[in-house]
Amino acid sequence: xxxxxxxxxxxxxxxxxxxxxxxxxxxxxxxxxxxxxxxxxxxxxxxxxxxxxxxxxxxxxxxxxxxxxxxxxxxxxxxxxxxxxxxxxxxxxxxxxxxxxxxxxxxxxxxxxxxxxxxxxxxxxxxxxxxxxxxxxxxxxxxxxxxxxxxxxxxxxxxxxxxxxxxxxxxxxxxxxxxxxxxxxxxxxxxxxxxxxxxxxxxxxxxxxxxxxxxxxxxxxxxxxxxxxxxxxxxxxxxxxxxxxxxxxxxxxxxxxxxxxxxxxxxxxxxxxxxxxxxxxxxxxxxxxxxxxxxxxxxxxxxxxxxxxxxxxxxxxxxxxxxxxxxxxxxxxxxxxxxxxxxxxxxxxxxxxxxxxxxxxxxxxxxxxxxxxxxxxxxxxxxxxxxxxxxxxxxxxxxxxxxxxxxxxxxxxxxxxxxxxxxxxxxxxxxxxxxxx
Length: 437
Fold this sequence. Notes:
Helix content is about 40%, strand content about 20%. It contains 16 helices and 13 strands. The strands form 2 sheets. Strands 2-3-4-5-6-1-7-12-11-10-9 form an 11-stranded antiparallel beta sheet.
């Protein structure tokens, strides 16, 4: 293990994930209802086309930003995905002891826009006008990417009071090597993992973003790159008086250093093998790699990555040909597994029939809407003409009760007032009540 050159290893510090609440403001009810209306409208549209839709077929627009619906979670929040973040909204009348808005910033957004810009993009552009500008933090992942191979890690090298240890081992070139090592559990845990391995399963754009980030910091993409990451949740952060995003970012360096003191990596070469496997391993010196990580963590430069909001183009999700390709590959693979070899003529026939069926559904829907337009609904005034005199008196009584005590600023008051005036005009026309003028 090359400890001697620890001080020369390239590294990049940062925040790999950030989760927080947004304290909702006076207009949140309006936002929530608009979101639900959009979801229901999209469902009704798909049903009118007889289309078997999934939640992620539903796209909702919030303040001009498109997000993809992923359904209601067990936490009672309606969740939406964006390329750069995830957001959750709940019914303001339910679980009133919990904040109504949850935000989860992901690494793709953080490393594309910069953390400062992404926070501003979400809080100002996406949630603007619906919050009180109070953002309690729920989780932060402080991390350092480092050009070092940690595949040699084993439990004896970790000095910590935490009893929870686990390792993910992968097979490579007829041998086994460490992919991820975990220490601890929520609300505070350490992950050390092979970043190259993790990026193998990532989408191309994320790989490109991260490789560019590593290159800027002088890392060789042909050599091992590991991520040393501390995951800290709200219960842990509150012990240090950290409540908001700003609190956490201002004290990130101290938090990381303190975390390195709680979980330490020792130098196994500083004591005997026998001592290493006993309680005497506490006498071992701290690994130079660990000291290098501990004392070099700083997000000052990381927070200076700034993308002006006016230069951020509107990002809208649309189901693309690239998205479709992934699904089609799975279908083709399933056919091949079951001994079916699809031809180009097969796919051409499926394409033509699918387009024909879709056009038929769209045209049928248009004809239905045109027919409904022709059958215009009668106005309220026209409906009143069909009422008996007794019916008008009964309606007058009901409207008077509904309007009694209703706030004049309420939208409902305007509607009831319109109906009451129309009713009064009809009763005057029939001379059931005297004309006021």
